[in-house]
Amino acid sequence: MSVGRKRTTEHEKDAIKQFNALIKEHSLDAVKNIVKISNRAMDENVRLKANVWIAEKLVGKSYSIADVEGNVQDKDINIVLNVKNATTNDSESWNDDTSELDNWGEDDIYK
User: What spans are recorded as compositionally biased (Acidic residues) (predicted)?
Assistant: First the structure.
């Protein structure tokens, strides 16, 4: 009596073939949907998870810019984030001018 995996029946083999065919047929649409979610989802955490999924598929889960000792392999790494508005799909420009916040909290409503 051998202890191992049970043999796959003809019915199971056919079901596996049908499943694989469906996966192949719809995989491109699924990836396109994940890209849409990564750009347009209203929830920031959902966008982050979609982008993490994409990044992991591109470079792998175990990818690191540091070696085992924690030394950075390439010190000239540039990361560009292009933040898009979820409703208009326009690029959002970041404004470093905080002068309008200088008087924050001094309105009549806060006194």
Answer: 93-111
Higher pLDDT, 87 or 15: 15
Q: Could you tell me the sign of the dihedral formed by the alpha carbons of 8, 12, 16, 21, in that order?
A: positive
| Domain chopping of the chain, boundaries | 13-69+78-83
- Say yes or no to pLDDT of 11 above 80: yes
Long-range contact set of residues 102-106: C-beta below 8 Å, sequence gap at least 24? none
List the one residue out of 66, 67, 41 whose CA is nearest residue 54.
Answer: 41
pTM of the model: 0.48
CB within 8 Å of 48: residues ≥ 6 apart? none
Beta bridge partners of 72: 66
Are the CB atoms for 52 and 59 separated by under 8 Å?
no
Query: b/e map of 46-71 (b: 16 or more CB within 10 Å)?
Result: ebeebbeeeeeeeeeeeeeeeeeeee
